Amino acid sequence: MTAAPAPSSPWRSGRWLFGAVWLLFMAYPIIAVVTADTGRAVKAGALALIAVHVIVYLLLCVYAMFDDAGGAGCGARTNPRLVNLAIAVLVLIAIALVAVIHTDAFAVAPYLMAVVAFAAPWRSRYALGAIVVIIASVIVVPEIFGWEIDAGFLVVMVVVGISMGFSRLMLDGERERDRAEKQQQDLNARLAVVAERERVARDVHDILGHSLTVITVKSELAGRLVDLDPERAKSEIAELNALARDALSEVRTTVGALRTPELPSVVAAATSALTAAGIDARLPDPADGAGPDATLFAWVLREAVTNVVRHSGATRCEVTLTPEAIAVVDDGCGSPLLTFGNGLRGLAERVEAAGGRLTVDSGPDGTTVVATVEP
Questions:
Q1: Model-level pTM greater than 0.70?
Q2: Hey, which CATH number is domain 263-373, 3.30.565.10, 2.40.50.100, 3.30.465.10, 3.30.70.260?
């Protein structure tokens, strides 16, 4: 059995590169510091501040800008206090650079707007307010000190700020829709549990209600006939035994149906669950896995699809099925549960008990769960 590796590091996801690539434009304040008419100590201090700015911004790109709200995906939710501290550090660095290179320091303004829009754990109105303050500072500060600033640069700052603001609104709207959809899915799951409990209650009532009533009546009759008509009492007791056996058999059948999944119903349920989660589902015809191990494959499919929906963050899930094997492949980012948590550990034990083998391979490009049995 192959144990799955831990979930991929945020550094390996690659999403942060979209924000980090803009660090190329930090060349402008660096050149401004180097060519500034000031002492070496001041230049060294300013360059050190720029280096800290780059490091802090890069860390925000990795751990906060493309973090998944709620910790449901590849990255764990970053501590909001640390994010706020990092943003405060960037603001202080920007203020210090303004004192050294004046208007050239405003080149860091787009980075501030980016972290406010995509990393700040604030409500939308506060983030938009901060973006407005940054734009206003770029316009007002040069006027206060009598510095000249390029009009084209101001236009670019305004356009960037508006774009960042709209991006933040769209991002928050998408997260709110995802949250509402998840709440609806949880509600549907709870309603399904309630409906299943009611069905079980009806089945148990229908199975045992009549049988227990008849058994009660016949046992009372047999008790009265023991002395009056022993032969008839024996006949009634024999019928009691037959009724009890029949009732027990029906209860076992009902419980077995509850505990043992059927492959066609599991395939249908898996398709529904994946589609509801927005995952492209590619599942085979259940007849392809018809055979003595169909029930085992149903267990594998149900557990694997549950992990895909809950933890993978995948956009596609493909299932291949033969009479000897089943494979569930997704393009998600893996999960801590794939280090054989309770679900997969129990599933592995079930597959091994049936004489098969379960393997789980997980990496940044997806996860593959395969169960094979001897033909």
A1: no
A2: 3.30.565.10
